[in-house]
Write a structure and sequence with these properties.
Radius of gyration: 35 Å
Distance between the termini: 51 Å
Helix content: 55-70%
Strand order of the largest sheet: 6-7-8-3-9
Strand content: 5-15%
Structural class: alpha/beta
Largest sheet: 5 strands, parallel
CATH architecture of the largest domain: Up-down Bundle
CATH topology of the largest domain: ABC transporter transmembrane region fold
Order of helices and strands: HHHHHHHHHHHHEEEHEEHEHHHHEHEE
CATH class of the largest domain: Mainly Alpha
């Protein structure tokens, strides 16, 4: 087996959990994907049409003065080398006029370039902000079961790397689609000028065009295949790296560092293999284009020089022709890279659209609803994450307002799923769950969650202070209420030992607190939320004195409907109305 430093860049399996979006074995990527990308982007660019138009016009204006420069340069050469009997004063006057025009053109070019650079940057940043806000809003509003299929690193990569590519594509001052759209017009304009200068010599400038076409045709199919593969490979590699950081403790405990290193190496080798293959084609593509350009210029210079020697072309005309010729092939070079640029665009748009197309939760409707009392009725509820396996089957019960219920059962029996359905984190079937005798699906999601305080199994904390984590979502809470929930959960004694007390930092994902301390903070946050229904998913797992905390909660919230999940019936059973086996 090859060592880490001698790994061969052959095929590699994607690591488990990798989100494969493109078929890397495909030899061809349909060009229709480019048209589909523009169709997807149309609504997102609707508010920026004016900006794109202005940037395009500024790009055109910046090209017009440059078209006059070779002509004036040729005039200067002809003035200096002309055998016409002009007086020295007339030659100086003509030369001064040409120099003045060149200086004026440069001033215009400077002004237009400044405006284009500033305006394109401002518009591009606004577009990137708008796109990232849409992606962030989509992530926040997406159904939980849909968005969790994507790793956080993949979402982040699409929101920043791919969005930045779109920004540069549409709003770049020096490249992007503006330059691609301008290239054909520049090509036609320079062609006309060349034919005006000398139509016989201009015919020879068309000889390299078939060579350009062949080069572009040959490399196009490779760009179509490799561009999306490289993008996805980068995202998969970053995602695997972040996964290993998040799971570092488990990796260490199970001594699987070597295995994970091998997985990461294989994934990275797969990415590097595609990247190197793409770069190998790019490394040949652009030099071949440049070689074709240089060969064309040399050929025309030779022919033009011979023609000038025999008097068929003035020295100034030759200078103008050769200078225009160097500009003439630039649009061809720009057009030759159009396919690679457009395939890159299509890949980024499809990756971003993977997020934008995720199904959202139903949005809130402006309707006045009476305060929720806490009555819950479940009628024949069933649920499955996949069709082959039902997690819940024919669950029916009635929970009165203020009742205290325990959902007991072994792992995998659907206790957490049932709480998720009550909190609308998962979508139940119609006419299966009723809150105060109203179908939960007929109620706005925001109304349901505003009236339910839910503690999930995971300890989810923000990198902030203890206080800000407790009052999260309830920033207007009174100090007495904060103190009360801290006492209820036994958090007050812990806070007293922390440097800074409530102002102490909890660290990233609560890393500065023990697991039990994290649980108490999360529980305090849940209890602080004023709601007629409290759902607690194994609230005191791993917490010392859990029985006392549960008893305190039951006593302190006598009128609130409380549902607690547990593997077995809790010892503080006297506080519960009943135990429901799930």
């Amino acid at each position: 087996m090859a060592t880490e430093g001698q790994a061969e860049f052959g095929g590699a399996e994607n690591p488990e959990g990798g989100y494969v979006l493109y078929d890397r074995t495909s030899s061809k990527r349909p060009f229709s994907a480019v048209f589909n990308a523009f169709r997807i982007l149309r609504p997102h660019l609707s508010g920026f049409r004016k900006h794109i138009l202005i940037i395009t016009l500024l790009t055109v204006f910046s090209a017009i003065p440059l078209l006059a420069t070779p002509w004036l340069a040729g005039m200067i050469v002809d003035i200096l080398t002309s055998s016409v009997k002009n007086t020295l004063a007339e030659k100086v006057q003509l030369l001064s006029f040409c120099v003045f025009i060149l200086f004026t053109i440069e001033i215009i070019n400077f002004t237009v370039s400044y405006l284009r650079q500033y305006y394109s940057t401002a518009a591009g940043q606004r577009f990137a902000l708008n796109m990232r806000l849409k992606l962030h809003r989509k992530v926040l509003n997406a159904r939980l079961g849909r968005i969790k299929n994507l790793a956080p690193a993949q979402v982040s990569c699409r929101a920043f790397d791919d969005a930045s590519l779109l920004e540069n594509m549409f709003f770049s001052a020096s490249g992007g689609l503006g330059a691609l759209l301008l290239a054909p017009f520049s090509f036609v304009a320079i062609t006309c000028i060349l034919f005006i200068i000398n139509y016989k010599l201009a015919l020879f400038t068309l000889i390299p065009i078939p060579v350009f076409a062949f080069i572009v045709f040959y490399f196009t199919r490779h760009f179509r295949r490799l561009t999306p593969a490289v993008k996805q490979g980068y995202s998969d590699t970053e995602s695997l790296f972040m996964r290993n950081i998040n799971n570092l403790k488990v990796i260490k405990l199970f001594n699987t560092g070597g295995c994970e290193q091998e997985k990461f190496k294989k994934q990275h080798i797969s990415f590097v293999r595609d990247k190197l293959e793409l770069e190998s084609y790019l490394a040949r593509f652009y030099p071949l284009i440049n070689l074709t350009v240089f060969t064309g210029i040399l050929m025309i210079t030779l022919l033009g020089g011979i023609k000038s020697i025999y008097g068929g072309l003035t020295a100034g005309g030759l200078v103008s022709f050769v200078t225009y010729l160097s500009f003439y092939y630039l649009p061809l070079s720009e057009m030759s890279r159009a396919n690679y640029v457009l395939q890159n665009l299509a890949a980024s748009v499809e990756r971003i659209n993977e997020i934008l197309a995720i199904e959202e939760e139903p949005q809130a409707v402006e309707v006045i609803l009476p305060p929720m009392q806490g009555n819950i009725r479940i009628d024949g509820l069933g649920f499955s994450y996949v069709p082959e396996r039902r997690v819940l089957e024919n669950i029916s019960m009635h929970i009165k307002s203020g009742e205290k219920i325990v959902f007991a059962g072994a792992n995998g029996h659907g206790k957490t799923t049932l709480l998720n359905l009550l909190a609308r984190l998962e979508e139940p079937e119609k006419n299966r769950i009723f809150l105060d005798e109203r179908d939960i699906l007929d109620l706005p999601v925001s109304h349901v969650r505003s009236n339910i305080a839910f503690l999930p199994q995971e300890n989810i904390l923000f990198n902030d202070t203890v206080l800000n984590n407790i009052i999260y979502g309830n920033s207007g809470a009174k100090a007495d209420d904060v103190r009360r929930v801290c006492v209820l959960t036994g958090l007050d004694e812990i806070i007293a030992r922390l440097p800074g007390g409530l102002a102490a930092q909890v660290g990233e994902e609560g890393s500065l607190l023990s697991r039990g301390e994290q649980r108490r903070v999360c529980l305090a946050r849940t209890l602080l939320k004023p709601a007629p229904v409290i759902l607690l998913d194994e609230p005191v797992a791993g917490v010392d004195g859990g029985e006392m905390i549960v008893r305190n909660i039951l006593t302190d919230f006598p009128d609130v409907t409380i549902i607690i999940t547990a593997h077995t019936a809790p010892l503080a059973i006297e506080g519960f109305s009943r135990i429901v086996e799930i």
